[in-house]
Design a protein that fits this description.
CATH architecture of the largest domain: 3-Layer(aba) Sandwich
Helix content: 40-55%
Bound molecules: pyridoxal-5'-phosphate
Oligomer: single chain
Number of strands: 13
Strand order of the largest sheet: 2-8-7-6-5-3-4
Order of helices and strands: EHHEHEHHEHEHEHHEEHHHEEHEEEH
Largest sheet: 7 strands, mixed
């Protein structure tokens, strides 16, 4: 089976497993796991942030960030396709008691003008606009990419209006290998950043939350109350360190393969339309009466797994466990459907 359901399906390579096996560990609740400490220091310096926090998942890093930046009755401004709104079990309401002010962006991307128009005036009967969340790349937006010049006016607006700015950078490195922009320039533009190690970077578990020392101190407490204080998790942090040092540049291969598949699909009469492919995600709508369920069943029969993103919408995601031979088969099958 060629598994294109997500880039989360990747499994640790032999070299990553060897790094995990060799990890020095300790009890991280007491701050005594040297490998976790090394990962946090490495990631913080990569992004030019004071501190980082290793967490079990990207849902947890995002939810901690929302909780740390807001009070109950505040609101979060983000695109309506955002992971924090769509796919985190409504945790913003549960953990933080906040509401969402959802914007209709373009392929998941929102602008400073849209945000400025959405910030609420100070009345008793309105929630307080407190936090903006940007997603890069935008998952449900088809893997679309923000460039820094699009972020600068959003940063300036948030600073002027006293709003915090959080980046859900689950797949940020898929964007940075395309734009050539640096992690530290992205670090400077946001109050907090979440990075997934368990997507295209290939680690089995883990996400990082980055911010200043005061924010991470608060975040560490919130991680504990959410049940995310781990003990000898340095074995997992070793995989994350390996991923950051070895698996970033090769994300360009996944992006290139997705573009190739998007270009094939765009020429096919079973496809109605393909979202612009900018990174490792291909989202397309099926033509006529073809349902996503029927298409996926037929696709599975040919040895490929994908996922439905709507009644007639499919997502295929490229990642480091797709071999050159598998890629050839995917091209062949979609070309000769
Ligand atoms: C995967 C993902 C997350 C975090 O997901 P976890 O499965 O909880 O690690 C957050 N944001 C985006 C955009 C994602 O794709």
């Amino acid at each position: 089976m060629i598994n294109l359901i997500s880039d989360t399906v990747t499994k640790p390579s032999q070299a990553m497993l060897a790094a995990m096996m060799a990890a020095e560990v300790g009890d991280d609740v007491f701050g005594q796991d040297p490998t976790i400490n090394e990962l946090e220091t490495y990631a913080a310096s990569l992004f030019g942030k004071e501190k980082a926090l290793f967490c079990p998942s990207g849902t947890m890093t995002n939810q901690i960030a929302i909780k740390a930046h807001t009070q109950p009755l505040d609101e979060v401004i983000c695109d309506y396709t955002s992971h924090v709104y769509q796919y985190e079990t409504g945790g913003y309401a549960f953990h933080s008691g906040v509401s969402m002010n959802l914007l209709q962006g373009t392929n998941g991307k929102i602008t400073a003008d849209q945000i400025a128009a959405a910030i609420k005036p100070d009345f008793d009967w309105l929630p307080v606009s407190r936090l903006v969340v940007i997603e890069n790349t935008c998952n449900k937006g088809g893997g679309s990419i923000y460039q820094l010049p699009e972020i600068q006016p959003i940063r300036a607006l948030c600073s002027a209006k006293g709003l915090a700015l959080h980046l859900d950078g689950a797949r940020l490195f898929n964007a940075l290998v395309e734009t050539g922009e640096s992690p530290s320039d992205w670090g400077a533009a946001f109050d907090s950043i979440s990075i997934c190690l368990s997507k295209g970077l290939g680690a089995p578990v883990g996400s990082l939350l980055l911010g200043d020392a005061g924010f991470i101190k608060k975040a560490r407490r919130l991680r504990k109350v959410m049940g995310g204080g781990m003990r000898q998790a340095g074995y997992l942090a070793a995989a994350g360190l390996y991923a950051l040092k070895n698996n970033v540049d090769r994300l360009a291969i996944d992006n290139e393969r997705a573009r190739k598949i998007g270009a094939i699909l765009a020429t096919k009469d079973y496809v109605e339309s393909v979202r612009p492919v900018q990174s490792n995600i291909v989202i397309f709508d099926l033509a006529g009466e073809i349902t996503a369920a029927d298409f996926l069943e037929k696709l599975e029969g040919k040895g490929i797994l994908g996922v439905a993103f709507g009644p007639q919408t499919i997502r295929l995601t490229f990642h480091l466990d797709v071999t050159e031979e598998m890629m050839g088969r995917v091209e062949d099958i979609l070309e000769n459907w």
